[in-house]
Amino acid sequence: MTLESVQKHNVVNVIYEQMKKNIQDGVWEPGCKLPSESELTQTFNVSRVSVRSAVQKLRDLGVVITHQGKGTYVTREIARYGAFSDNQPILHLSQEEFDDMRVFRQTVEFRCMDLAVEKATDEDIRQLEQALNRMLVSKDDYKKYSQADYDFHLAIVKASHNKVFIHVMESLKNIYIHYLEELNRVLGITLESVEAHIKVFMALKNRDATTASETLNNAMAHNVDAITEVKLTEK
């Protein structure tokens, strides 16, 4: 393993490039656990902050994944793609997973929007607006944006006042957030996405189920096209 001591101005990029090279050269193979943060700090002769920032860059590209309490690993998906581009993140969401979530949303969320138009209280609308506001202030952080995104859609389900739908939505929290994080990380947080959520909120506030459903359906159709394009670039 070749890791050079780093003493340069832009240390984060230097560390990132060296770590990326180890992955591309097969020094760190798919499924391999990376050296610990303290080991990387000593090897590169840099601060923990610099190491964390470099690892985060790899994580944002989907090249490595961190399991809490276990460490950071090279994702097995990288074996299918070989060299990776800094501008083309890997989507860690299979076509089947994406399709299953889309069908779930069309089945549950669309019905919940119909119910929300009938049953939403002023407090329900306020919770929906608060989640939307958190999305708007988190546009530069896809993880925070995705959490707020989930809260937004959970607020819609809660506004239906159907206990079964609410329980199902809450039980799928981790899966749902992972789905949103992958979409927002790879496709980016677009103006179209933000505007669609605002439009859904206004439609529900105005008790317009048709516009709310049409807006969400169009946004999901756009995601289908975008995911298809990403999958084509991965082949």
Automatic annotation (TrEMBL):
Pfam assignment, any one: GntR
GO molecular function, one term: DNA-binding transcription factor activity
Domain called HTH gntR-type: residue spans: 9-77
InterPro entries: GntR_C (IPR011711), TF_FadR/GntR_C (IPR008920), Tscrpt_reg_HTH_GntR (IPR000524), WH-like_DNA-bd_sf (IPR036388), WH_DNA-bd_sf (IPR036390)
Keywords from the named record: DNA-binding, Transcription, Transcription regulation
Tree of life domain: Bacteria
PANTHER family named among the record's database cross-references: TRANSCRIPTIONAL REGULATOR, GNTR FAMILY, UXU OPERON TRANSCRIPTIONAL REGULATOR
Protein's recorded name: Transcriptional regulator, GntR family
Lineage of source species: Bacteria, Pseudomonadati, Pseudomonadota, Gammaproteobacteria, Enterobacterales
